[in-house]
Amino acid sequence: MSDSNFKKKYKDRIKKRSEEASTVRKIVSIVLTTIIIVLLVGGVSGYFYINNALQPVDPDDETQKNIKIPLGSSTSQIAQILEENNVINNALIFRFYTKFKNETGFQAGTYQFTSAMTIDQIIESLKTGKVRKDPVFSVTIPEGYTLEQIAESYAKELKFTKEEFMAKVNDREYVNQLIEQHPALLDDVILKQEIRYPLEGYLFASTYAFYVEDPSIEQIVEKMIKRTEKVVLPYRDAFAKRKMTLHEGITMASLLENEARTAENRKKIAGVFYNRIEKEMKLQTDPTVLYALGEHKDRVLYEDLEVESPYNTYHVKELPVGPISSFHKNAIEAAANPIESDYLYFLADDEGNIYYSKTLEEHNKLKEEHIS
Question: 65-128 — its CATH code?
Answer without folding.
Answer: 3.30.1490.480
